[in-house]
Each structure stands twice: as C-alpha cells, then as structure tokens.
Amino acid sequence: MSIEFLxxxxxxxxxxxxxxxxxxxxxxxxxxxxxxYAIILGLVGALAGLVLTPFVxxxxxxxxxxxxxxxxxxxxxxxxxxxxxxxxVAALLSFxxxxxxxxFGNILPFVGVLIxxxxxxxxxxxxxxDIFSIWRTHGPSKSDSGGEESGRSLQxxxxxxxxxxxxxxxxxxxxxxxxxxxxxxxxxxxxxxVLNELQYIADSADSLRRQRGRRGMExxxxxQKSTSVPVRISDIDVEGVREVDDKLVVLARQLRxxxxxxxxxxxxxxxxxxxxxxxxxxxANAVKSVLLPGExxxxxxxxxxxxxxxxxxxxxxxxxxxxxxxxxxxxxxTNVTVTKVLQTAAGRMIFARLxxxxxxxxxx
Length: 364
Hints:
- Helices cover 59% and strands 16% of the residues.
- By secondary structure, it is an alpha/beta fold.
- Strand 7 (303-304) and strand 8 (311-314) form a beta hairpin.
- It starts with a helix and ends with a helix.
C-alpha cells in the first residue's frame, strides 16, 4: 500500500466528516432535512478528499524532493546561511518599523522579514563560490600550527572538489589505476542515470557490450573499496533531458565541476558549452615517454609492418615503434635508434632503424 493511497484515505475521511457537519449546519439554516444535507455534502467531501488530497500532500512533497535533489550541498548551505542572515537583519529592522503609525507599523515589519529573507538567500547563493573560497583561505589553516595546518587545508580543498564520472571512463577501467596512484583529488560523483546506463550495457544481448558493462561494474566496485578517492553515488537528475551525455553537461554546469571521460564527442560538446573536461586519453598521451631522434631503445619486434621489410614493436606504455629492416628480427630483442617521432590523433608513433652494428651483422 503506497503512501499516496494512505493520504487519500485519510483525506477522504477528514473531508467526509467536515462535509457532514457542514451539511447539517446548512440544513439547519435552510430549515430543511439536516440528514439529507449531511449525507450529500458528506459524500461530496469524501469524493473531494479522495481526489484532491495528493495535490496538497504527497505530490508537492515529491516535487520539493526532486527540486532539492538537483541542488548541490554547497548551494543548500549557502541558502541556509543567507536565510539566517536575512532574518537577523529583519529582526533588527522590525522594532523601528513597528513604531511607525498604523497601518504601516503593523504591515511593514512582516514585509521587511519577507524582503530581507529573500535577498539574503539570493545574495548568498549567487556568491556562494566566493564565500566558500574565503572560508577555505581564512579558515582553520591560519592557525598557530603553521605548515601542518596549511597542508591539511590544501588537502581539504582538494577533497571538496567534485568530479563527474562518465560511463565510458568507468568501462575503460584505467580510472581505478589512476585513482589508486593518488593523482586524482576530490570526490568522484556517479549520478544514478550513469549507473543505470552501465547496468543496461551489462544486461545487453550483445556479448561484447555485456562484457564491457560487467567490467565497468567491477571497476566501480574497486573504486568503492579503494580508500584513496571517495566515491559517491547520487540520485541527482536533470529534468527535461533524455541523453546521458546531455545530462552530464547540464549537471556539470549546475555543480560547477569537471567531467572525467574518454569520449571524444562528449569532450567536444562540453568544451563548446564551457564545461571542464578531464580526458583519460589525453592524460595517457601526456605521460608517455618522451624520445628524441638519435636515442637508443631495446625493443622486441613482434610483427611485420605495412611496408616491405618493416617490423613493429611496442613500448610498455603501448606506443608503436616501426623499425626499418626489422622484419628479420621478429621475436628478438633488438637495439634500435630513433629516427622520427610522429604525434597523431590516435597517439604517438616512433620510427626507428636497427643500430649500425646489428645492420652489419645482418648483412654479414
């Protein structure tokens, strides 16, 4: 039995009783049958209570809950502080306003409370980032304990950062390793609609998509067990938007936080709308080893290249190394000299040739 149905029953009983009393009173005034009036208005009241009760009880409460779910905790705290500040100002103004002649002395104190409370909430919500930044800067870190407290303050600032996670970066799996290293600071926020999409992929009829979805579930479980970065799953949602990527962009703008992803299309859309993006692929390319022409590498050539005589090897970070005349050295550890480094959209590619000594041995 749902809560709404219980409220309907309570409303029906209450309105029915009020209808009976009101019908008896009207029947007495009209000098007619009080029982007939009581029965008719009692039935009308019961019907009205059964139909209208949810519109004044459960449905406004559900709407308020959904509205509060869209608002970040920082905004709620700023609004509460602004409300308290506005009421304090209104309390200071109420006494001099009450000394005004009637009717101003009776009306203006109440109007002042409404105006001060409204402007207090609006001002504090609009300037919430500035207010909280001042608190972080001049808060507990300015104590006598010096460097230790300052370091703790900086750590708290990093912990207060929120990062939205996209479905693609959860399925990718590298986010668990990145979080474990400690380079990622802040709270990883996973909205419920992202989790629902991940579950939909895990239940897909396609075996490949199903494996990717299940791997994403395993990665999410590893993130929750890890103590290096806090993970929070939230029921916050965006009304009026159906696509998950669009919801993430709108939510990131509302929360003023970045999106962690490796989806190229989401990256482009978010950039156009001014949303910060943390791209795992860009991070992977940035931390790859930097090699210059003339440097020597020890590689294991594992396959043939596209051109005649070429061999292909891979570094530990996945960078492809194309070796000239390396076809004869497949499945062998070989010293090569870098000739050119090419940066492409797919990543970094290294061209190399066999060392002079090895080339001589090969020819011999």
